[in-house]
């Protein structure tokens, strides 16, 4: 095979050899660019965009977490009239137009999940619970929804 190539190469004129060499180098560079460099460059750019998006989400969550902590901090005397924690939470949620997707009543705590709620409504509800019934946020896990200003509560632990 090598002999056949050499025979073919020698049969070409000097100008054809130069053109073939330039074509081979161009083809090799194209293969390197589109086969390796371009995919790596595209993946790097996509990763940088994902990182930027994740940083924006983190910043948003940190800003909103401060509001949540402020709404759930502090223990005051309860104004609830001999109502259980579950009754207080349910009554207050109804007043604020908040619907639970799941609720678990524990001894001195209550755990709730909310599929979709407007953030300002949620903070108002937590503030009302804290100010009027001394119910505090013990732990929470929430995420931003696609709809602006709405969040999903994956887990909210409330207690005295």
What does this structure look like?
There is one protein chain. Helix content is 59%, strand content 21%. It is α+β, with helices and mostly antiparallel strands. It has a four-stranded antiparallel β-sheet, with helices on one face. A hairpin with a 3-residue loop joins strand 1 and strand 2. Helix 2 runs parallel beside helix 4 (119-133) and helix 3 crosses helix 4. The chain is rod-shaped, with a radius of gyration of 32 Å. The termini are far apart.
Q: Would you summarize the structure shown here?
A:
The chain is of the alpha+beta class and 160 residues long. It has helices at 2-11, 14-72, 85-95, 119-133; strands at 102-105, 109-118, 136-144, 150-159.
Helices and strands in order, then pairings?
Blueprint: H1 2-11, H2 14-72, H3 85-95, E1 102-105, E2 109-118, H4 119-133, E3 136-144, E4 150-159
Antiparallel strand pairs: 1-2, 2-4, 3-4
Helix pairs in contact: 2-4, 3-4
């Amino acid at each position: 095979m090598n002999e056949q190539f050499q025979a073919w190469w020698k049969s070409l004129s000097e100008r054809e050899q130069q053109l073939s060499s330039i074509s081979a180098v161009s083809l090799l560079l194209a293969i390197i660019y589109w086969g390796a460099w371009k995919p790596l460059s595209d993946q790097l750019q996509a990763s940088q965009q994902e990182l930027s998006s994740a940083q924006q989400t983190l910043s948003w969550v940190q800003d909103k977490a401060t509001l949540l902590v402020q709404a759930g901090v502090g223990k005051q005397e309860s104004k609830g009239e001999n109502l259980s924690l579950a009754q207080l939470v349910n009554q207050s949620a109804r007043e604020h137009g908040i619907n639970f997707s799941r609720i678990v009543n524990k001894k001195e705590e209550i755990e709730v999940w909310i599929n979709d709620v407007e953030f300002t409504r949620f903070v108002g509800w937590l503030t009302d619970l804290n100010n009027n019934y001394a119910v505090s946020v013990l732990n929470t896990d929430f995420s931003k929804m696609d709809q602006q200003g709405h969040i999903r509560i994956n887990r909210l632990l409330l207690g005295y």
